[in-house]
Amino acid sequence: MHGDDSPGRRFRDAIVKERPLQVVGAVNACCALLAERAGFRCLYLSGAGVANASLGLPDLGMTTLGDVVEDARRIATASSLPLLVDCDTGWETTSSIPTTVRAMIDAGAAAIHLEDQAEPKRCGHRPGKRLVSTERMCNRIEAAVDARTDREFVIMARTDAAADEGMQAAIDRASSYVDAGADMIFAEALVTADQFREFARAVSVPVLANMTEFGRTPLLSTQQLRESGIRLALYPLTSFRAMNAAAEHAYQTLREAGTQSGILDTMQTREQLYELLDYHRHEQQIDEARRSASVVEDDS
């Protein structure tokens, strides 16, 4: 869909309705349904989430465009919420940025973000990051903007410059990225609320703050971010980390106790899952189709 009905339009509308817009990570379609049920207005597919959850790999630029498109399509199909997708450096050397943009639009995504790291990229909260020049990053953005088949599809630019080049360099880069056509800015690895405030004041488009756990950035509340002028608050892997801790506990308990009976109260029940997935409606449709097929066979 394009224009007023497109995912990109829904994403832009959500930013207006909620300040800051909470953008919550979903590593698969089932998590997307849970997030939607909890009342979130926007979903996120993390590059680290695809690497970690789908492939069992570290976040070191080891995924392909196809890997991310597959997960994005499944999530966008399962949920009506707009989806922001982490596209790392855009796979510019393997698939090309225009191919990336068109593939994400076709998959049903509402937005992507591209970053100014050099390939192979690494986690934004790890040392040893290498950045491309401002000119090269602007070329990435311009290529992405030119490739859009839907004018509402959002191109967000992420800068990792604050950690190594300093705040002013990061702000200068972000301003250049906006001039190149970026609709929004992802300010990675800032370390204080004052830095977010400075960044938001200096940049003319909505700014996203990454509230990832166990990284360089403090976990600021939505109120603190709102007061800092931040328009989007990202929680990329919160549920994934919680899921992993719960799964590890379940495996250890099952192995050591020889039964899961002691942890049943920590589990989603079968009926709760069925309700989430609308299981009974689908089952009824299958039964009705079988009955109709039987009638046709009897009449023939």
What are the secondary-structure elements, in order, as H or E? HEHEHHEHEHEHHEHEHEHHH
Uncertain residue segments: none
Secondary structure: helix percent? 40-55%
- In terms of DSSP E residues, the strand content is 5-15%
Overall strand count: 8
Physical arrangement of strands within the biggest beta sheet: 1-2-3-4-5-6-7-8
Global mean pLDDT: 95
Please give the radius of gyration in angstroms. 21 Å
Structure description:
With about 300 residues, the protein is α/β, with parallel strands linked by helices. Helices cover about 50% and strands about 10% of the residues. The chain is built from 13 helices and eight strands. It has an eight-stranded parallel barrel, surrounded by nine helices. Helix 4 (about 65-80) runs parallel beside helix 5 (about 95-105) and helix 5 crosses helix 6 (about 135-145). The chain starts with 6 loop residues before the first helix and ends with a helix. The mean pLDDT is about 95.
Write a compact overview of the structure shown:
With 300 residues, the chain is an alpha/beta fold.
Keywords:
300 residues; alpha/beta; 8-stranded parallel β-barrel; 13 helices; globular
Strands, helices and their partners?
Layout: H1 7-17, E1 21-25, H2 29-38, E2 42-45, H3 47-55, H4 65-78, E3 83-86, H5 97-107, E4 111-115, H6 134-147, E5 154-159, H7 162-165, H8 167-179, E6 184-187, H9 193-202, E7 207-210, H10 222-227, E8 232-235, H11 238-257, H12 270-277, H13 279-299
Parallel strand pairs: 1-2, 1-8, 2-3, 3-4, 4-5, 5-6, 6-7, 7-8
